Amino acid sequence: MKLQWDHKKYTTGFAHIDQQHSELFNGINGLMLFLKQSTAGENQKNKEKILEMLQFLGEYAQKHFQDEEKVFEKHDHPMKETNKKEHQLFLEKYVHYQKKLQAKLDQERLTRGVLIQIHIFLQSWLVNHILKVDTALRDCAENATESTVEDVAVTGKGTFSRFLAFFKRNN
Length: 171
Ligand SMILES: [Fe+2]
Description:
Bound molecules: fe (ii) ion
Organism: Candidatus Electrothrix aarhusensis
Structural class: mainly alpha
Helix content: 55-70%
Protein name: Hemerythrin
CATH superfamily: Hemerythrin-like
GO molecular function, one term: metal ion binding
Pfam families: Hemerythrin (PF01814)
Number of helices: 7
Order of helices and strands: HHHHHHH
Number of domains: 1
Shape: elongated
Strand content: under 5%
CATH architecture: Up-down Bundle
Family: Belongs to the hemerythrin family.
């Protein structure tokens, strides 16, 4: 299922954080776009591209976590440690998956099934985490100067566009 940005449901009240979450949705949707390709489980070059995108997504997530943790810290939010811990666990798991994928790619054994597992993990982790932890930031957004809930314009495009274009072209 494609991730769709629903502002009411997912907003943290901080525009830059929402924008980054929306970009992460795009990255995860890019993985799904790739998986829809008939050659997703066969073409080695395309598989190299998907690993490149997953690497990029991991780096983007890491940068996003740092930005978000700063907001939790700044407002001394009661969930700041929970948030940090969840990010850390996610990144550990992600690195583990990346190593597994790279090893499979090197042995030419990377299958669509493995990528589907990653997709499910990414999608469910991110949605759960935003709903359970990140949206708790709304408590302090009302008094924040960074942004207001109203001025959030989440268009969610740009960061992953070169990958999305590649997968569309090869679809
Ligand atoms: Fe978070």
